Amino acid sequence: MKISLKRLAAAISAAAMTAVSTGTALAPAEAADTVFPLKVEGENMKGADTWTSVYETQIPGYSGEGFAYIQAGDISFNVTVPEDGMYSVHGMVAQVLNQEGRTETLDVNGKKYVTVVPYLDKWTDFDFGTVRLNKGENTISFTGSYGYMELDYATVTVAEPHDYAKASGVCCDPRATKETQSLMSYLKSVYGKNILTGQQEIYGSGHKDNYEWENDFIKDLTGKVPAVRGLDFMNYNPLYGWDDGTTERAIAWAKERNGILTASWHINVPIDFENYTLGDEVDWQKCTYKNYQASNGTFNTANVIKEGTKEREYFEEAMKLLAEQLGKLQDENVPIIFRPLHEAQGNDGRYGDGTAWFWWGDRGAEVYKELWKLLYTTLTEEYGLHNIIWEFNAYELPSSPDWYPGDEYVDIIAYDKYNANGGPNLSAISDVFNALYNMTDGGKMIAMAENDTIPAVDNMTVEDAYWLYVCPWYDGGEDGGVAFLGENYQDYDEFKKFYQSDVAITLDELPEDLYTSGGTSEPATKPATTPAEENTTVPVTTVSSTGSSSDTFYGDANLDKKITVADAVAVLQYIANQNKYALSEQALINADIDGEAGITGGDAITIQKVDAGLVKQTALPLKAGK
Ligand code: CA
């Protein structure tokens, strides 16, 4: 059984606490039976004095005896919690020093949460974020870095768990192939319950042409093989085109081993683009995927989105070669999670110089989004590729939403985690997960598309950071590269614990019908039974003023007496091609579930919501008179 009972229990108790403790009664911070929400007056915190005005500035309306004025020193309070879990910290604050906002730092058991508090001359409830507290006593500090903020009081509540069911399980490409939508449906069915294991393969001639090196290593270590294989289409390019068999390995992984594929595309450009003639071969050492600043290159990314430029012609050729390979996958009915133009925001905002790692991000967000759309449109419309699940690499910075191409171009949001310095880093980086979740209000699944250390499984579950999959980068150890599977990056005990846990899904646990009906016939996972789900197993027998017969079971588009993602797939296929994927008269009645007449994408979405337990199937008969 693959349920996280711990997380379920945490969610239930969080909901219960929120429901019963709506009061703001002051509880002693030291009490073992802390009542939430916990309210602590600023002036009562350790290290605080009681202020009633800041020099001449009056801020009336404070609660208690006054407020704390955080200057160079920290003020803190303790909170005792019964279980490890996620909590939300708010402050009733004012900040009258900086018109442009002031950076403030919350410290929770030594972990820093940095935020910017705007100019506020009235007491204002400010969300300092979701933080992890551990069983027992915890210390929360408002630090003196940079300080000079007024704090009337702070509140701590149990954080609401993420609503993973909100994530779309329908491909953004309305013409996605049956296999692609099936894979998407499977991903959605495990998202928030499980975490898929993944591994980037060595490419080129690394590890003496042993492309299974990473998988062999992991099998030796854990007894299991990862479910997701990461590849890179970088070597199919117009410059030094070098077929290292990536496409053939991809097809074999999906067809022979029933695995899941993902790929990036480190597409190169000639450094001396100015003097480059289209069609010429260029030695790989004179190519780059870095930004023009770092490479001193002359490729102008802004020209790619302008027709008639040499950059555009070059990119068209690169897309053509890429499409050839993706087309081979489509011909074999193999879908792929494709993550092109990745890490576009690169180091933007981190070093203040506005540059990005890669050329596709080096002219800023607006050019980047156009580039993404050009690639999407060309692959889908010009080359007819509908075997792609589109994955966008995001960052957690305040400016990161500016880079998001849009819901209609993206299926999965991903983050590449590299934070191990001088040893493994087991953090679940739940603050990053939360930022990515908020980017689309939970509307897209979130994956860790590349990483160094695999986070500790307990960190991911306790911190409610259920990354769709994790995928360490390849191990280049023997060949002079970074050994991402070496002990400097991986904690082998935690690696094994994750792979052998009920949360992780390995290759052997993928369902046989992964590419046919979204893993519904042989579930690798047995989702937690919810009351809503129990409802879906009992056909509705009494309906209603719509005149439907007693055979009607709204949502059951494939007439198997159950509501699963397979029904949503059936609806989407019908919409895409009514001749090829016809539905019977009863199936059409069943499928029309969303209260709007006619079979539309809304019906597929509603079916998925029913399947996820978000809405009750019995509450969804058609609106009368339609
Ligand atoms: Ca107060």
Describe the structure.
This protein is α/β, with parallel strands linked by helices and 626 residues long. It has 3 domains: 5-158, Jelly Rolls (Sandwich); 202-408 and 473-509, TIM Barrel (Alpha-Beta Barrel), CATH 3.20.20; 531-619, Dockerin domain (Type 1 dockerin domain, Orthogonal Bundle), CATH 1.10.1330.10. It is 25% helix and 19% strand. It has 15 helices and 22 strands. The strands form 6 sheets. The chain has a 7-stranded parallel β-sheet. Strands 1, 4, 6, 9 and 11 form a 5-stranded antiparallel β-sheet that branches. Strands 5-10-7-8 form a 4-stranded antiparallel β-sheet, with no helix packed on it. Helix 5 links the parallel strand 14 (228-232) and strand 15. Helix 2 runs antiparallel to helix 13 and helix 13 packs antiparallel against helix 15 (601-611). It is globular, with a radius of gyration of 27 Å. The chain binds calcium ion. Residues 41-43, 62-64, 66-67, 152-153 line the site of calcium ion. Calcium ion binds next to strand 11.
